[in-house]
Design brief:
Largest sheet: 7 strands, antiparallel
Order of helices and strands: EEEEHEEEHH
Shape: globular
Distance between the termini: 27 Å
Structural class: alpha+beta
Number of strands: 7
Helix content: 10-25%
Radius of gyration: 16 Å
Strand content: 35-45%
Strand order of the largest sheet: 4-3-2-1-7-6-5
């Protein structure tokens, strides 16, 4: 019996640097889960080390494929180097900043698969409000 698809994962080619240092290749994965239909997770370092996870809006990643977007801790913009198309994700925290460049085609394929699971604009129909309230209140649903 087939289980319904509830998440999308994609290993991506990532280059990570902390300005002004030179970027280095780092294993990375994009993850989308029906349990959090508005967000994507970028995991850096897995499976070789304990990953560093950043969670941000799926719409931010989708828009950033085509034009610079975002303010604050996460900014996403298209990056074209010669014939290479990448997506630049700038991550900021209280301890510093990092720049993550990932392949635009891989990112687009990941987003298309996530949109097949939950089409844009229908995310609210997939939110479990009882569970969200229970999480906020520190109780199990």
């Amino acid at each position: 019996m087939n289980q319904p698809l509830t998440s999308v994962r994609c290993t991506v080619d990532a280059q990570v640097g902390a300005p002004p240092n030179i970027a280095a290749p780092v294993p990375a994965e994009l993850h989308y889960d029906l349990a959090d239909p508005c967000a994507v997770r970028l995991s850096l370092g897995a499976p070789l080390t304990s990953p560093v996870d950043w969670v941000f809006a799926r719409d931010l990643l989708a828009e950033g494929l085509h034009l610079p977007t975002g303010i604050g801790d996460v900014q996403v913009s298209p990056l074209r180097l010669d014939r290479t198309h990448r997506v630049r994700i700038t991550l900021r925290s209280a301890t510093g900043a990092a720049v993550v460049d990932i392949d635009a085609a891989e990112t687009d394929a990941f987003l298309r698969r996530s949109f097949a699971l939950v089409p844009p604009g229908t995310e609210s129909a997939h939110i479990d409000l009882d569970r969200a309230v229970a999480d906020v209140m520190g109780r199990s649903a």
